[in-house]
Amino acid sequence: MMDQFQAKFIEEANDLIATLEKTLLSLEQNTGDKSLVEKVFRVMHTLKGNSSMFGFEKMGAVTHHLETIYDFIREGKRPVTKELLSITFTSLDHFKVLLTDPHLTNATAALAHEQVMEQIHRLINQADTAQLSQNELTEQKTENDNSAKAVQNTYHIIFQPHADILINGTNPLYLLDELSNLGEAKVTAHLKDIPTLDSFAIAKCYIYWEIYLTTQLDINAIKDVFIFVEDECEIKIEELATNSLSINNTLPNYTTAKPSANNKINAGEQVVTSSKKKGEDEPTSAVAKEQLVSSIRVASEKLDDLMNLVSELVTTQARLSLFSEQNSIPELVSIAENIEKISRQLRDNTFSICLVPLETILLRFQRLVRDLSAELHKDIILVTEGAETELDKSIIESLADPLLHILRNSIDHGIEPAEVRIKNGKPAQGKILLKAFYSGTNVHIQISDDGGGINLQKIRSKAIAKGLITADAHLSEAETIDLLFLPGFSTADQITDVSGRGVGMDVVKRKITELRGEVFLQSKVNIGTTITIKLPLTLSIIDGLLVKIENTHFVVPLALVDKCYEAEHTQLVDKFNNLITLDGEKVPFFYLRKEFNMSLTNHTIEQIVVIKYEEKRVGLVIDAVIGEYQAVLKPLGKLYKNQDHISGATILGDGTIALVMDINKMINQFLKSETVNILSYE
Amino acid sequence: MNNEQVTIAQSYLSFKLGEEVFAASVAKVIEILEVPKITKVPKSPLYMRGVLNLRGSVLPVIDTRLKFGMTATTDTVNTCIMVLNIQMDTETFILGALVDTVQEVFEISDDEIKPAPSIGSKYKSEFIEGMVKTDEQFIMLLHLDKVFSSDELVTVKESLALPTIA
């Protein structure tokens, strides 16, 4: 049971770390923003509380110290420095390690832990000395709050958890441990409520504790320990004395002396009830509650399941509609129509649930740009526009790597060093703009830098040197740029560990093509480079044109369809050059029955669907055009992985399967097997 | 192979291809279907019969006769599809195997299983877990993972290109 909660904690902690990272990045841009410091402090505090509660003590320790520093900043006793931010970033990276290996079994991780702790300690000490020089008074105060304090208070705490506290995964013993860390504590457990064995419920807590604690900290520090369980227990904290009572010896007497009502005893008495603490007292829980209302976490497998079920529903609904059409029972028709309406709405809703804003991966890039530009001693800023643009979550996941590649290229090769930039009359700070926007059923993502641009001549000579083109080859600008997408091509003069190994743009292109997307590159020397990625909104549904060849249904992606024509059979078969004149223009065509090795027909009239293939019009001869169809794409599976013509299958209303054509790959294949390259005809 | 025999229940499902009887461990068989409309995928190997709609998911179907180098026949009322769970490396996937007729589930103990003959068989011995003799008839226990995992399909395809004596 504990494990389950730990998994939950890790998930939450990752979220918190991401939030921290984001906030810190903005803080870095705007060091004076108090609200950001406040947020860092709050999130750090939550992280601290959670990590010590779930047994991640090392993480708790680091967060504790960081929280202290940010507390100082919050109170205006310290400025936000670059050093502090970089230590915080390092700590965040360290937290990620700690989450997978909380007890640091790995030696290097343990060493890293030491280093992080040491850096933080140094920073805290700096904080103290800084204040010393700043202000005598503050110094005095800090000393009271913080270090070597003479004043010790003794508190009497009764901690009475509700019986079902264990159900939420809280281990009261951790809280007691935490209390003991505050100072010298004497803990007595009261066992009188434990029932006899026959009525004993294993998941219930029957014990309450009485604690005498001598500490330098004030009552709020003690309350903080119970901050996360205040709803689940009764806590009574009394201040017994403003000096240290030698707990072990005098306390028993003190307890008996209590009824004699020493005026000090009741002075700090306070019963903390759940209703009392709300709002400003506890910003972290308030934030958590707000989030609870606006969104919930769902495992992505559950979404996939939902998506599959909706696809099945859509398919079944198509069947119902078909059936109601065939059997004209008025009531059935109206039911079928209703179901059609509802399932369409349900489908649209489900698709929108599976859409994720691009923002979710942008954070990673902000961090990358920051770290990498620092490493290369370049001053680069990443500006994002349209981060709220949404894409299918599976696309977003596969998009991260290609985008990283592109950004690395821009930082490493695109943006010049500051001196060069100034000499060329540009601002010293390089700028990368990442812009996302919708265009029809596609999403465009543009990454442009204001760097040196790509020297076409350089590409050309490189390509000749690598033997990719001959020295006298004539290439257009676009064709030259296309060379960049060939495997093993890199124009970088030297290989850095960032990029330049020549595995870049070809990987980008391949990954994007896998997502049914396209990549374009434009570049002007000394002005910059712009890479545009065009992606479909979702991977799982496409608008298609349903056609039939022999007994098989096929779906042609509608986006590629140009026009449909009829033609006489004799115009199409046994032609030497496979060209047909349509609308006064000669169009090359493929007779699909022949290409698919099916028997030829003797229809006198044939149907041609003209599609766009690499800016050219190509005809596909099929038996019949049936109509538009929304195809829910399903993979053909492992056994067909070598099948290039078909990108997937979809289920039709009558339960049969239609195959979705992968037009680009299909025509490429046809061209390879064709002895005469018909597309070379101009 | 021994490990598997220990962990898998010793129940087998027997089926026929032509006159020969084979058996598959029931742990591998998910269900048995009648032959619905199967959509042929163009330009795929001959033994790939096509894909069918199994309650909303796409199931590839292999014509087991062709895969084993037998001649093709037309489907009869007895022809059916065994939906199998095939493990390949670390992945599992589901496929349909078209067989002439499915017979029965029977139980056998380990000591009744005899090793496959290494010569005189037109089936590669690595595809066969063992042989069982019942009522004067030999049943070949198939190693389904090996028979149907993709790599093996290639070798079978290659052997199909050779003239077969079947």
UniProtKB/TrEMBL annotation, chain A:
TM regions (residue ranges): none
Catalyzed chemical reaction(s): ATP + protein L-histidine = ADP + protein N-phospho-L-histidine
Residue positions, PTM Phosphohistidine: 45
Record's keyword annotation contains Secreted: no
Ranges in a coiled coil: none
Keywords recorded for this protein, A-Z: ATP-binding, Chemotaxis, Kinase, Nucleotide-binding, Phosphoprotein, Transferase, Two-component regulatory system
Enzyme Commission designation: 2.7.13.3
Domain Histidine kinase: start-end pairs: 308-539
Keyword match Cytoplasm: no
Gene3D superfamilies in alphabetical order: Histidine kinase CheA-like, homodimeric domain, Histidine kinase-like ATPase, C-terminal domain, HPT domain, SH3 Domains
Record-annotated HPt domain positions: 1-102
Domain CheW-like: residue ranges: 541-672
GO molecular function: protein histidine kinase activity
Role description: Involved in the transmission of sensory signals from the chemoreceptors to the flagellar motors. CheA is autophosphorylated; it can transfer its phosphate group to either CheB or CheY.
Designated name of the protein: Chemotaxis protein CheA
TrEMBL record, chain B:
Limits of the CheW-like domain: 9-153
Gene3D superfamilies with a match to the protein in the record: CheA-289, Domain 4, SH3 Domains
Transmembrane residue ranges: none
InterPro entries: CheW, CheW-like_dom_sf, CheW-lke_dom
Taxonomic superkingdom: Bacteria
Protein name per Swiss-Prot or TrEMBL: Chemotaxis protein CheW
Organism (species): Rhodocytophaga aerolata
Lineage of the species this protein comes from: Bacteria, Pseudomonadati, Bacteroidota, Cytophagia, Cytophagales
